[in-house]
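Changelog note: in this version the structure field was regenerated for every chain. One regenerated record is shown below for reference.
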Amino acid sequence: MEGSVDAAEVIVAASPQEAIDAFGDGGDVTVVAGGTIVMPEITHGRLRPRRALLIGRAGLAGVSQENGRIVIGAGTSLADLEDAVEPLGTCARRVADLEIRGQATLGGNLCAPPGDEAPRGDLQAALLVLDAQVRSTGAGGERTEPVEDFLASGPAGRLVLDVSVAEPEAAATATVRRPHAHAYTVMRVCAARVNGETRIAVSGAGPTAVRSRAAEQAAAQGADAAAERVLDDVSPHDDALASSWYRGQVLPVLVRRALNDLD
């Protein structure tokens, strides 16, 4: 039936191991955590899961310290990240509204597919600059990899368990937003200094966030130099919120602002 999960096998995981076992190699399974993206897709008939794995009670939420890094469970809500290390905290606070943030999860935001009308994956740029490491399971078993590699290969067939991030020496973010009931973020630049290295990432310019190494290298010569190089790594696109031309004009400005605030 269109817009229904009546025909689906529904599995409610009660522990991390139950979630891992039920997910298996990720074949033919739809993971439901907060449901803020998945449920509208099902309602409108764009997604018809045969197996639905509910992980909201699987014990995958929480924030802890481990080996000098911050470990965040994949089921942690965005509301619980509003006071997180910067720029992650600011990014979490700017997602939609309180109701959405209370349900949406870190894992869901990280794995969100590109939206037709508005960017998703609001936290991706922050995770990139914080040297995030993603622990996931699926075909081939458990693995931990840099978030950049995880995004490049795509989340299909992987169940995110947790994400660890570094505590930066300094961090900043700059954004352009479109007023709306959920105040969409059109594009965001995050910058952080981690272990003496300046890292710069952009979200909202394309389907997923990207790290700009050209801008990072130029940052040693100042914010203006970095701003001039960011488009070497980023190819802005068109969508319902903004044109590629507009994004190309605004992006260097955001890089300059973020780096000036970083200092």
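Spot check on this record: The chain is about 30% helix and 25% strand. The longest helix spans residues 244-262.
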